[in-house]
Design goal:
By secondary structure, the chain is mostly beta strands. Helix content is about 10%, strand content about 30%. It has a single domain, classed as YaeB-like (Elongation Factor Tu (Ef-tu), domain 3).
Length: about 120
């Protein structure tokens, strides 16, 4: 995917559906207490992103009319190609977490899942 290209709607729908096979050795167990209605942070690797070079320090997002520094935008072309989404859990079935609000492509490697804590939501 190029820095300017937005993913197709079908790719986004597939990505919003579930977090499952990309977890590899990570598993969701009862002890993890991931529940419907909860918000979680999903950290992932931009595995299909264009390789970062100094030319990408300033970029113009497709939805903006101005150029901004890479740390001021959500571009997948980054010095460390790590993405983050805060999503809502719709439900958990076995090792599959059904979510909404994810903005990554289907098959993107998930690095970690973390809970959104009350402290993080009240200090905005």
């Amino acid at each position: 995917m190029s820095a300017d290209a937005a993913p197709a709607a079908s790719e986004l729908e597939a990505a919003r559906a579930r977090i499952a096979g990309t977890l590899k050795e990570l598993t969701v167990t009862e002890g993890d207490q991931v529940k419907a209605g909860q918000r979680i942070v999903v950290l992932f690797y931009f595995h299909q992103s264009t390789q970062f070079t100094p030319d990408f320090l300033v970029q113009t997002p497709h939805h903006r009319n101005e150029s901004l520094g890479v740390f001021s935008i959500c571009s997948p072309v980054r010095p460390n190609p790590i993405g983050m989404s805060i999503v809502e859990v719709l439900g958990v079935e076995g090792c599959t977490i059904h979510i909404k609000g994810l903005d990554m492509l289907d098959g993107t490697p998930v690095l970690d899942i973390k809970p959104v804590t009350e402290k993080e939501t009240t200090n905005r």
